[in-house]
Amino acid sequence: MTMAGPGGAGGARVQIEGVHKAFGLDGRSTPALIDVSLEVQAAELLCLLGPSGCGKSTLLNIVAGFIPPTRGRVRVDGAPIAGPGPERGVVFQEYALFPWLTVAQNVEFGPRLMGVPAARRREVVARYLDMVGLSEHATKFPVQLSGGMKQRVAIARALANNPSIVLMDEPFGALDAQTREVMQEELSRIQRVEHKTIVFVTHSIREAVYLADRIVVMTSSPGRVKDVFTIKLPEARDRFAAEFTRYESEITRVVKEEVAKVRE
Amino acid sequence: MIRAAALAGALTAWALVAYGGRALGLVNPVLMPTPGEVVEVAGTLARDGSLAQHLAVSSLRIAEGFGLAAAAALGLGLLVAVYTPARLMLEPVIEFVRPIPPLAFLPMFLVWFGLGETSKVAFIAYTTFFPMFIGIAAGLGRVDVMLLRAAASLGASRRELLRRVALPAALPSIVVALRLGFGLAIFVIVGAEFMGADAGLGNLIMEGRVFFNPAQIVMGALLLGLLGSLVNGLLQAAERRVLRWRALG
Fold this sequence. Notes:
B: MetI-like fold
């Protein structure tokens, strides 16, 4: 069994082994994922990239434990997963904040479930709200926040629970273009401090090149692993650097083949 | 302000029709009691203490019947939400019984529970249970699956999902269901007290009919309306307090 210590180097954090997923409709079943095998290394930010309907969110939902695979298995730190668990934090596209709780109460939701004492919880909330720049808004309710602010709260909520893996399902997909870039920069900055193991689902090539250590390009319906790119760019990235653009066009070509296939 | 003005307007209209119609000989005085007559009846009944007693008897029946039904609706609503076999078993039974007008069963309640308090309380509980149960079960069933997933991936157990996510998320529907149920309790108490009751506002109205005292009928009706709006106001205030976060957006 491969057991990597928290934040430790070496060994895969997440092992996805021969995962198939089919969704049944009236006895007929449509394959969504076919034989996906992947490993996510510790402290790595891995992007799952592909056109809509390529099953990348389905794969993330399987890793999160929200839905079971039809075949194959997922192991986290060597142990097979059974349902959702606090060691795998999730950030959703639609934020999924608890609307009846304040920003601070949302962030401390996980630590409270774990029985973390109140004084320690206050420290945790203060730290992560500061990290996402929302200290001034601790007592507000989600309805009072903009989309970008809501997603910052959701990220703070996931991180405050100290998960060893963070799963992000198109987290910036509902934001406007400017806010989206700001959020990417924030996440990149946070990751340079926190060194989390992150699986990040997106259909934006620029976003993937900006954030990822590795990019897994998936084929469209049914989803398979088409190609894997290792991004060798500095941690703080420049979207206009020649190297950045080169990765972008190279991956664009690969993704376009898939988009064209869907059209046919 | 508008509410107060509307109430004053309705009262004025009533006074105009009752007094004016009488002065002009257009309205048979027996058919349209005046506000003065209604107040007079209320005064007479209040002085000998019987009004307070009728009011107390009705209020207690409503409180007990509504309380029982609310507790049952909440309990079964939760059960149905968390345990699918219970939902599959309960739903068809409830959907079959629910459309039957409760008044059709009123005679059976008298046979089963006698002429005393039990039959009234049981009848109110029976009538108010269905709309409350359906509202609560639907509210719990509609909880956003994303919120449940978010909580589960933060480490919430099934029990915590229910307590910390499903219940607060369904609270708006639960409060609406309770208000609906209470309104219905006021609605059916009259029917329950028409038959075989010796006290209560419904009984007072029935007595007004038997002894041909329209002022007493109107007074009983107005008191029920007052009781209903009073409790509805309280429930609405509680709703605003609990759902403070919604008003901020």
